[in-house]
Amino acid sequence: MGLVNVKINGIDTKIEEGSTILQAATQVGFEVPTLCHSDNLEHFTSCFLCAVKVEGGRGNLVPSCATKVREGMSVTVESEEINESRRMALNLLLSDHCGDCLPPCEDACPASIDIRGFLALVRDEKELEAAKLIREKAPFPGALGRVCPRPCETACRRNRVEDSVSICYMKRYISDTELEELGEAQLPTCAPPTGKKVAIIGAGPAGMSAAYYLKLEGHEVTVFEAHEKSGGMMRYGIPYYRLTDQTLKDEFDAIERLGVEVRYNTVVGKDIMAKKLEADYDSIIIAIGAQGASSMRVEGEDSKGVYSGIDYLGKLAEGQEPDIGDNVVVVGGGNTAIDVARSAVRTGAKATILYRRTRAEMPASSFEIDEAIEEGVEIRFLAAPVKLEESGAGVKVSCIRMELGEPDASGRRRPVPVKGSEFEIEASAVISAIGQKVVPDGIIDTGVGLTRWGTVQTDPKTFMTDRPGIFACGDCQTGADIAVRAVGNGRRTAYSVNQYLNGEEVTGEPVLFNSTMGPLDQVSEELFRGIEKVDKVKMPVIETAKRVTTFQEIETGFSKERAREEAARCLECGCDAADNCKLRDYSTKYNADQQYFGGEIRSYQVDYSHEKIKMEINKCINCGACVRACAEIKGFNVLSYVGRGFTTRMTAPFGRSLVNTSCDGCGECVNVCPTAGIMFKKEYRNESKV
Amino acid sequence: MEKTKVYVGLGSCGIAAGAQDIYDHLRENTASDKLDLEVTSCVGMCYAEPIVEVVRGGERIRYGSVDKKFADRIIASLESGDLPEDHVVTTTPEGKEYLDRQVKIVLKNCGIINPESIDDYLSVNGYKALEKAVNEYEPAKIIEIMKESGLRGRGGAGFLTGQKWSFLAGAKGEKKFLVCNADEGDPGAFMDRSVLEGDPHKVLEGMLIASYATGAQEGVIYCRAEYPLAIKRLNKAIAEAKERNFLGDSILGTDFSFHVHVKEGAGAFVCGEETALMASIEGKRGMPRLRPPFPAESGIQQSPTNINNVETYANVPFIILNGPESYNKYSFKNSYGTKVFALAGKIKRGGLIEVPMGLSIKEIVEEIGGGTDSGRPVKAVQMGGPAGGCIPASMFDTPIDYDSINETGAIMGSGGLVVMDDKTCMVDVARYFLAFTQNESCGKCTFCRVGTKRMLEILTRITEGKGVPDDLDKLEELAHHVQKTSLCGLGQLAPNPVLTTLKYFREEYEAHIFDKKCPAGVCKPLITIQIITEKCTGCTACARVCPVSAISGEVKKPHEIDPEVCTRCGLCIETCNFDAIEVV
What is the mean pLDDT of chain A? Predict the structure, then answer.
């Protein structure tokens, strides 16, 4: 056969007659996406991802996988028009792709911890491996395993069966086991020194997480910390009965053990100027948290006997015992309000929380509200202070009743004062815990921009501020938020800083496309059929009577047996093909949007009937590769196209299950499936039991 | 006394209108020595079915809307010799309006001869063209004549038939196939069925001539199984033609051989697409594939194949017998000859018509069709079935030719012509046609399978009053993608009804989305039915027919409709004798 001359995006090339445009494009270095095409099969042209434009044609796009080159042909294989067409094809395929790439717990985790992975390791009695796996994404399994408000458990699909898996406590169990067996945290080996120096302001969860990952890359990391100990708000904002001094020490000391230097009692802006850091270091990360208390904007806020929750908890953490008397009123509805009230109870006071909305709107974790009530904390809902006055040794709190009106910007119903419902409370002290704000004084001279909320302005993906080389993460970037987000963003910031230090383009940690079946309540019931109910293992706690008298940790941890049982409850959601899925790769590359169209999604039961192979038509994109592989390679015709229109699907004919066909499990279909429509069953998964 | 020949039109349409009963009635009530009862097929005047024709002294008198009572009068007239003068449909002004503009080449014998009799066909010069072809012409000459005639494929795409034949003639291969595409699937189109039911031999003769010209030895007529009468008559025609040596080996004593059989399709619309059709003939799932290779290179069983539509073949004998100039004298721009249309929808005289190229849409709709059956203004016509488009009344001067129709955004298609009056909602029309194509998508290509589904969902929510402002942009965006990036005609043309209605009736879409109104009063969630108090006489007729008892009021006093209960079925409007109920 002779050669023909073709032009691909203006590049001349010669290729053997009979070749396809796809082959010619590949020859000159273009990566043309295709889902339905496989070199082992006859072309089929169903996905239309490989569509290209032939000059002089009708203006339509043709499938390059099957269109043969002709002498003198000029083809555009990449252009805005073509990429838009590919993106649209992906949007359409995804709109009918019913599956989760990531397990929903991992997707919900602000630190993207491989939850499914560490649960499987615990189940398989490999706790030490599990600890290492968690540290790939978050260096504080022991601390997070105690205090995380666990968005993962809210997303856990097991909630649809009976209750979520106890994910959070499992991290604690893993960390405790590691310490028990090894005496200290296992740390990876750092890369050889790069000679680059990074200054991090703040030794809280964000700053120390960033320090950890940067040190692993071989950079020299110095952390400047105003307090005498590390831990940030995890130490100074969370009472020791929830997170002990020992745990903080174990986890944060490990980072110093890795070689990160922490300069304690060093206030940036006072002891050392940020400008100086700029001069001395190659990069700076601002991780100063949000350590100022928000104002209640109530008359008499500055009266004697009125404190902020942050100050109160900070003093307790430092070992002081502020004199708050025996009858404390706490204002607010978040975890800090609960922590303050429960701490006050432990110092022998009666604590009353005033919250202006109802329990349903309370931002604090539900189980912590329960524990507070158990410990005798009184919560007065729909009540707010309007005036504070010094009154004898204490404070007179004038309050008003509220009712809920229209939803506000946060989506929560706005509390509205009820006229004439004023009442008064006498208190020994008032502690406000209604929010925190960034105190940027020490870093102002770096010139970084602030947002209208007073947080440090950064690129949302790279965490770089408007000053090149200066990054920000943690509460000072997000506003007061949960520790796990600070930890995750610390890692992401480290990724960007590493790129910056290496002289690469700063793009931030890659975010892969993630298909989702949608919110928990929208997932098809089919998915949970036949799953046996197993009670969630409860965390043992010390008795309430003892609890209220001490700052001793109240939770005592899982036993080995119970932890492993609990880990086995994991449904192992997420897709086995997530790391080997063309649909996902292209969706990432072309920035596809699963929600662009919405609309009906086909939903079928997964066919687990076959010994070796499972068919998940929900994830099938109708490329027909499996049908063709079975017919063309194997000669079996086990599968076929069934139906017409939108409901067309690949399946065994006549609605049969795979087990009732001649399929011998050879897997030719699995090999060509571009996504996870047809896969080998995994031994370790629950599906082998279905 | 001489026997009187009486024809009863027994096409599917006639039978549906009761013609079989009339036929049986005539046979049972007339002595066989008086009546020579014959079967014929559809003459195209669907609006006048059942039709009975009486032959008297060489003249055929056609009666329409024949019921048993009128049939009795015909029987009586056989005795008396005085034929009834009413119910005549051809010589009336109406009949003339309907017939005079038509030129019948394809439909010439339909409704005239007995389609189940080869002798009847032979009596109207049947197989004379074949004889002429094999005796007088070399195959190449026939292709030349076909090219000269200007005949273009009547299946819709309009490719020059002679040229298509030349590809097959020039193709290398031991075996060549000739296919007749009789997979007529457009809603509202029935010309192929009528031709097959009314004149099957003509189609066979066309195929025979094509076979002779191209060297194809085997023919397949791919006909949907929903056309049992057409299949029955075709099979009978094939058997009879074989008996008379017009088909089979050594045709007419020459060394020319051709075999043909009917392949019944299971009724998938996409099988009208030629590559899907061939897959179906091969016993595979009917799914289109990429062209090239074109069928002439690699078709059925990888052999060279030529595919033409029923109407295309039915034109061939005329062209061969009368010469290309007798055909291409009917010409307009690049279109030659005649085109058959199935005139349907809200039309006064619906039926099958055959008109020369160049007639305007207005002439067809207003003159031949007589305007709307309701008397309301015509709003648009949908041409070309679900792959076609809507042409608004303001563009009715558009002449019938391939190019002019394409310019409007519609297509000639196979010849479906659905007339719509001002009570037709164009969004609903687009939704209807798209629902059809979406259901009939073979499911292979992304844009067609999922894209049309998402378009349909948008249209559906617009008609339900749930449309949102960016719906039209999204709809258009998607329509262009589906058009540009689908493999076969089904996908490429599926957006046409949406795009043409968006082009010509955008304000109607906007009214649905922004004003939450359906201007035509069709989309139920967007309309309210109310009684005009001043006009209501309180006759209670509406209240009595209302199936959900939504209408209340005292006798002789104005009534009221409870909009909460009303299901917008419209029965009350039809019932009211005082025009006192309106849609708002």
Answer: 94
**Predicted local confidence at residue A382, as pLDDT:** 96
CATH of A104-186+534-567, one of 1.10.1060.10, 3.30.230.10, 1.10.287.40, 3.40.50.970: 1.10.1060.10
Shortest Cα distance from A508 to chain B (angstroms)? Answer: 32
Check residue B346 and give left, alpha or beta (phi > 0: left; psi -120 to 50: alpha): beta
Q: Is the pLDDT of residue A264 over 70?
A: yes
**Per-residue pLDDT tens for B195-217?**
999 999 999 999 999 999 999 99
Does the beta-carbon distance from B443 to A68 stay under 8 Å? no
Min Cα separation B203/chain A (Å): 31
- Give me the pLDDT at residue B311, please: 97
List chain A residues with CB under 8 Å of B442: 641, 644, 648
Q: Note the pLDDT of residue A689.
A: 40
Q: If we measure between CA atoms, which residue out of B263, B314, B228 comes closest to residue B12?
A: B228
Length of chain B: 584
CATH code for residues A582-688:
3.30.70.20
pLDDT tens for A143-176 read 999 999 999 999 999 999 999 999 999 999 999 9
Q: Which fold has domain A3-78?
A: Ubiquitin-like (UB roll) (3.10.20)
From chain A, pick out residues whose CB is under 8 angstroms from the CB of B492: 60
Architecture per CATH, domain A295-309+320-434, reads as: 3-Layer(bba) Sandwich (3.50)
Do A399 and A423 meet the contact criterion of CB atoms below 8 Å apart? yes
Domains of chain B: residue spans and CATH:
4-99 (3.40.30.10), 118-326 (3.40.50.11540), 332-421 (3.10.20.600), 426-514 (1.20.1440.230), 528-583 (3.30.70.20)
pTM score, whole prediction: 0.90
Cβ contact B443–A644 (<8 Å): yes
- Confidence label for A683 from pLDDT (cuts 50, 70 and 90): low
pLDDT of A635 reads 93
Q: At residue A544, does pLDDT exceed 90?
A: no
Q: Answer yes or no: do A95 and B450 touch at CB < 8 A.
A: yes
HEC per residue, A184-249? CCCCCCCCCCCCCEEEEECCCHHHHHHHHHHHHCCCEEEEECCCCCCCCHHHHCCCCCCCCHHHHH
* CATH architecture of the domain covering A197-291+438-501: 3-Layer(bba) Sandwich (3.50)
pLDDT at A685: 54
User: Does ipTM come in above 0.95?
Assistant: no
pLDDT, one tens digit per residue, over B357-416 is 999 999 999 999 999 998 999 999 999 989 999 999 999 999 999 999 999 999 998 899
| A92/B484 Cβ within 8 A | no
User: Domain spans of chain A?
Assistant: 3-78, 104-186+534-567, 197-291+438-501, 295-309+320-434, 582-688
What is d(CA A119, CA A537) in angstroms, rounded to the nearest whole number?
14
- Residue B73 at interface with chain A, using a CB cutoff of 8 Å: no
Count the alpha carbons within 13 Å of A136 in the hemisphere toward its beta carbon.
10
Model pLDDT, residue A631: 95
DSSP assignment of B327-341 equals HHTSEETTEESEEEE
Is B485 close to A60, i.e. CB distance below 8 A?
A: yes
Return the percentage of chain A with pLDDT > 70, whole number: 99
CA B168 vs CA A530, A651, B134, B163: distances in Å: 60, 38, 18, 9
Inter-chain Cβ pairs, chain A and chain B, closer than 8 A: 104
Interchain proximity B483–A60, CB inside 8 Å: yes
What gap in Å lies between CA A286 and CA A224, rounded to an integer?
10
Interface of B with A in 487-506 (CB under 8 A): 487, 492
Find the mean pLDDT for residues B553-562: 94
pLDDT of residue A192: 97
The answer to whether B466 faces chain A, any CB pair under 8 Å, is no
Amino acid identity at B526: L
* Both structure tokens of A514: 């993630």
